[in-house]
Specification:
four-stranded mixed beta sheet, 3 helices, three-stranded antiparallel beta sheet, 7 strands, alpha+beta
Length: 140
């Protein structure tokens, strides 16, 4: 069985809102749905380094691995059942001097309160991660 590592980051602003990205309508996976910045970690790449790279590629925010805090991890089978997917969820606070710059992979972004993000989000693992982080005060 193939193993995939995916790293997502719950980016927060200084007011505690979380950044969600609207996946492009042309995306092959979950088109039009809200998502956190992140994606697949490359073979041999450190998970946190992959998370930093993905955030830079998708929203142009510059973090270092030490700026991220791992708050959730889960392993599930892929929807096709042909892989084991390890999902790592980090959190980081965006400094006020940075600006979100969307890549072609997303059509919009929005800042949500945690509770509003939970209502808008549809991915079961990432919803579970956000709820776990909220309930255990990991986003403060």
């Amino acid at each position: 069985m193939k193993i995939q590592n995916v790293a997502k980051t719950i980016v927060r602003d200084t007011a505690g809102h979380v950044l969600l990205l609207r996946r492009s309508a042309a995306d092959n996976i979950r088109a039009g749905e809200w998502d956190f910045p992140g994606g697949g970690v490359e073979a041999g790449e450190d998970i946190a380094v992959g998370a930093v790279r993905e955030v830079m590629e998708e929203v142009g925010l510059d973090f270092q691995p030490g700026d991220l805090r791992l708050i959730y991890a889960a392993t599930k089978s892929s929807s096709a059942g042909d892989a084991s997917v390890n999902r790592f969820v980090y959190t980081a606070v965006m400094s006020s001097d940075q600006t979100v710059k969307l890549s072609h992979e997303h059509s919009a972004y929005q800042w949500f309160t945690i509770d509003d993000a939970l209502r808008e989000f549809s991915h079961p693992v990432y919803t579970e991660a956000l709820r776990y982080a909220r309930d255990n005060n990991l986003l403060n």
